[in-house]
Amino acid sequence: MEQFVIIGNNSNGELMNLLSLLLSILFLNTTFEMNQSRTVDSPSGIHTVTFEIPDGYPQYSVERDGQPILNPSLLGFELQGAPDLSGPFALISIETRTFDETWTQIWGEKKHIRNHFNELKIDLRETGELERELSIIFRVFDDGIGFRYEFPEQENLKEFNILDELTEFNLTGDHTTWWIGAYQWNRFEYLTEETPLSKADTVHTPFTMRTENGLYLSIHEAALVDYSTMTLERTEGYSLKANLMPWHDGIRVRTSAPTVTPWRTIQIADNPGDLITSYLILNLNEPNKLEDTSWIKPAKYVGIWWEMHLDKSTWGPGPNHGATTENTKRYIDFAAEHGFDHVLVEGWNVGWDENWYESGAVFSFTEPMEDFDLEAMAQYALDSGVRLMGHHENSATIEHYEAQVEDGFKLYNELGIRAVKTGYVGHGQEIFWTDEEGYRNYEWHHGQHMVRHHQQIVELAAEYKIMLNVHEGVKDTGLRRTWPNLMTREVARGQEYNAWGEDQGNPPNHVLYLPFTRNLAGPFDYTPGIVDLLFDEYRPDNRVNHTLAKELALYVVIYSPLHMAADLPENYEKYPEPLRFIKDVPVDWYDTQVLNADVGQYVTIVRKDINSDDWYLGSITDEEPRSFVIDLHFLEEGLEYIAEIYRDTDDAHWETNPYGFETAELTVKKGDRFTLTLSPGGGQAIRFKAVSE
Ligand code: NOJ
To answer: What is the pLDDT of residues 398-419, one digit of tens each?
Structure first.
């Protein structure tokens, strides 16, 4: 660790020491006046962060290979009832250190992850009367940078409210950007916009962009704990500023020192595939906090779900109720026969009526409906080598849910249930809490109130050995590293829009944006695996807008440690070959590589199974047909593999012939060249099955 403020250590006696001290102070003061800067490089030297404090106002800038990525950008805060905490500051000390460690994921898309960075910590003190202190910590990696603020314990800053975070990201040009707008009623469930930076509105993160020089950047945050979600507001030209989701009263964050903010992150890569294999967000999160993780297991699940979205059955009671004992038994039998681990049962509990999304305060999280024998089904599942997956839809009535959730988790735990899907259906700013005077205060789904709520739920779930699959929650910021029972989440526009989306569902290119935007945040419960793509019997006006092979490829392309086989058992019986791939494909990986990628157009990802030498490939395209020659360099030297291929036929087409699907087998080895052919809106999935040494 290096201290920047070193008081003369070659002194000859006390006088010399005193002189050195005076000189140091003078030197420091002069450095501010002279706008002295301090830089820190990433381990390979490719990235440089420069910290400066002109006239006492802190700012940072970022370069890659000497080319500016961020021009000088201000840092600081506006506080309630107190002067801004943005300067002028004096520098107290600077520390630098290098960190290099390889850690092991409990589950994930890559087993061993290297966390290698150089850190620069700047301690500042206001020059004014209050002398408040603020530290800024930069971590500079070869795949980007992260920085956070630290508010040390101090006399003049105890409890405080942040009215605005002043962090800027001053970009250098009118980059091409991919984004969804913040502050919308439907939370994160939108299609991706592609615009020049100068046309971007206030956006959610990850906010991904391509510079004119062909670099790829993505701004996001890591370790969002007891703070408000950061969105990005374009202030002028190519400048962005943090825009934190406010509480009902306009305060952005209620907090007290000592504390830290989440990390603000910028991932930087030469090509979009390298964004996908950047683990910077996880590296900036704390290590696992759970002592016993033996009960946490990535898994595949089926469930009583798609049939309600298709209107084949209902969540609510009545003649078409989906979650009956009989129907659940059917799904359990199917899961047991085909080796699926969990059976999700939605609509099992009291409270589902026609208006459930408006009147969730009637949900019970312990009482099953009359025609559903919860205990018997939980036991039947266990006896069949399967487990039920619980469901807690609370329709965003948080107070009501918080009062019952522990009983709900306890019940599930007693019944041997290990995974629960939660749901917070409700418009963007519909979360309320009742204050001491009885007023209902309405909060955003992503403000600090809900960040706190989700944190409590994940910790409570861990106590009851429950893995979580969160829908309509807060965006992922890598907390799964610290709480590995936080498996996956939706928080984007998923498969369900294909069933009932009034805009014809997800267009063919929707899933071509997700790997470079939403998925950079973390796992996504997209619920792939629809084989009856047109579902004419139930919803003739809707359909899945791609080919069957592409639907299979999504299991590899979209990472989730809980992946659903979303279609109905009776449909899988009609499609044995796709079902075979869905059964085979793992949900926990030793390694992940991206073979080719272009945002919104195509991507080919290969992943190595954690439990064998098998590799799996998923390749998908937008409406353009594509042919790629790939090199099988990733396969193990000396092994022979059978490539089990699931592909589009030559005449397959997402619109006119989505079922154009065929399988093939080929013997291959490391270094072979292999041609992938994808039809318009199509894809290809391959299992490379290791057969010999
Ligand atoms: C929305 C969720 O995304 C979906 O998966 C679920 O079925 C419904 N809410 C009901 O909870």
So the answer is: 999 999 999 999 999 999 999 9
> Looking at residue 693, what is its pLDDT?
58
253 Cα–ligand 1 center, Å: 29
pLDDT at residue 202 greater than cutoff 70: yes
pLDDT single digits (tens) 544-571:
999 999 999 999 999 999 999 999 999 9
pLDDT digit string (tens) for 94-113?
999 999 999 999 999 999 99
Residue ID of nearest Cα to ligand 1 atom 8 = 423
Pocket test for ligand 1, best of 393, 491, 500, 562 (most atoms within 8 A of CB): 393
As for how many domains the chain has, the answer is 3
Residue 390's domain spans which residues? Answer: 299-585
List residues with catalytic annotation.
496
Instruction: Tell me the pLDDT of the chain averaged across its residues.
Output: 94
Kindly list the protein residues whose Cβ atom lies closer than 6 A to any atom of ligand 1: 305, 346, 393, 423, 425, 471, 490, 496
Report the separation in Å between the CA atom of 485 and the middle of ligand 1, taken as the mean of its atom positions. 20
Q: Atom 11 in ligand 1: which residue has the minimum CA distance?
A: 393
Residue type, 162: I
The Å distance, Cα 395 to ligand 1 centre, comes to: 10
Residue 390, pLDDT above cutoff 50: yes
CATH number at residue 59: 2.70.98.10
Distance from Cα 523 to the centre of ligand 1, integer Å? 17
Using the 3D structure, point to which of 567, 585, 603 is the last residue of a domain: 585
Find the 255 Cα to ligand 1 centroid distance in Å: 33
Buried b / exposed e across 41-54, counting CB within 10 Å, b at 16+? ebbeebbbbbbbbb
pTM beyond 0.85:
yes
pLDDT tens-place string over residues 497-550: 999 999 899 999 999 999 999 999 999 999 999 999 999 999 999 999 999 999
Residue 506 has phi, psi (to 5 degrees) of -85, 120
**576-612 burial string, b = 16+ CB within 10 Å, else e?**
eebbbbbebbbbbbbbbbbbbbbbbbbbbbbbbbbee
Question: Which residue among 309, 355, 358, 425 has the greatest number of ligand 1 atoms within 8 angstroms of its CB, and so is best to mutate?
Answer: 425
- The SS3 assignment for 414 reads helix
Please check whether residue 681 lies inside any domain of the structure.
no
What is the reported pLDDT for 465? 98
Kindly tell me if the per-residue pLDDT of 193 is higher than 80.
yes
Ligand 1 atom nearest 315 alpha carbon: 10
Does 55 share its domain with 13?
A: no
Rounded to a whole number of angstroms, the distance between the first and last alpha carbons of the chain is: 48
CA 631 from chain centre, in angstroms, equals: 30
Strands, DSSP E only, in 184-244?
193-196, 207-210, 216-222, 230-236, 239-244
CATH for 562: 3.20.20.70
The residue written with tokens 């419960």 in the block is: 525
Q: Atom 7, ligand 1: which residue's CA is nearest? A: 305
Of 189, 314, 469, 471, best ligand 1 pocket probe by most atoms within 8 Å of the beta carbon: 471
In the beta sheet, which residues pair with residue 168? 241
Domain boundary among the residues 585, 609, 630 is at: 585
